[in-house]
Structure formats: structure tokens, C-alpha cells
Amino acid sequence: MDNEALFALFRFAVDMACVAAFALSGVLAARDRKAELDMFGVVVVAVVTAIGGGTLRDVLLDVPVFWLEDTSFIYCPILAGLAGFVITKDRVHPNLDLMITVCDAIGLAYFSVMGAVKAQELGMGPVTSVLMGLMTGISGGMMRDTYTRQVPFVMRKNGEFYATPTLLGCIVVVNVPGSLGLWAGGLLCLILRLAAVRWKLKLPGVSW
Fold this sequence. Notes:
The protein is an all-alpha fold. The protein has one domain (about 5-200). About 75% of the residues lie in helices and about 0% in strands. Helix 2 packs parallel to helix 5. It is globular. The N and C termini lie far apart (about 60 Å). It comes from Candidatus Desulfovibrio intestinipullorum. It is found in: Cell membrane. It is a multi-pass membrane protein. Belongs to the UPF0126 family. This is Trimeric intracellular cation channel family protein.
């Protein structure tokens, strides 16, 4: 197997791992919030979490939706959702919040930078590319929270940084060329998100 094939295999493995992580964050959130969903409902939340942001991005960019071109991106969250449902059924996990946070942070970082990269590849300008990356990253989580009857985390005044790490990561991707920008932006987003949870970093809220 040559280097190009190895890289393609590695890229596919990373893609599927990150999609599965975001899907699992949907499953875990549904369990944690007692959304009273059956197996079908849990799988729907998993799929929407994983592909919702990318679907919205592709519709706005007027390009074929990514999971219609490569069905691996729809099969993966379905399988992850089913597996998550079976594993978590009737079980209480003491580290559930941590599991949700890590899975969500991985998916957030991945989808954000890939959204910005795709917009760039389609000839979009820096601002549009950053916005597409931001939307790709946070929209799936917003849909997940809405389906589980929660105020979207990104909008909560008491929530830690969520959109901010995404925005900064996308800015790095757009301004640093090549794979260096991709990895640097993704890692920055991931580290900032986890740091925000660890040290309760948040933007000022408004009291009404």
C-alpha cells in the first residue's frame, strides 16, 4: 500500500471516528436529559447531531449534500446511535457529563475545521469560510439540544465557551495554509473547548 492510499485510509478513519463521537454525544445527551426517547428517537438525535451542521452548510453553499455522495457519513452515525443506545440502556454512568463533553468537543473541532476547508475549496472568501465552519460546528449540537428539549448550549448565559473556540479555530484554518492550518485550527478548537469546561471559562451573560 503506497503512501497516498495509507493517507486516504487514515483520513477515512479520522472522519468516521469524529462522526461517531459527535453522534455519541447526541445519544449521551438524550440519556442524560431524560428526553424519554425510544431507540428510534435516540438514533435520530445521534444522526442529526452528526450530520445536521454539514447538511445545512452544503444547502447554503448550493452543493450536493456530503452524506448523499458518501453514504458512510449516514451509516456511521446510525450504527453509533444504535451502539450507544444498547450500551447505555438501563445503565447509569458516573462520568456521563465528561463523556458528553469529550465526544462533543471532538465533533465540534472536526466539523468546524472541515466546514471552513470545504468553503475555501469552493472558492469562498475568508469571512464566508469562517462562518461556514462556525455553522457546521455548532448547528449539530444546537439541533441535538432542541430535540432533547434544552436551550441550545451555545446560547446559554451560564454555559462555557462553545462558539468562541470554533470561531478561533476556523480563523486559524483560513489564515494558515495547508494541512498545518487544518491541524492547528482543529487542535486549538478542541483544547479551548476542553479548557473552557475545565476552568469554567464563559462570556458575560445578561440578567433580565
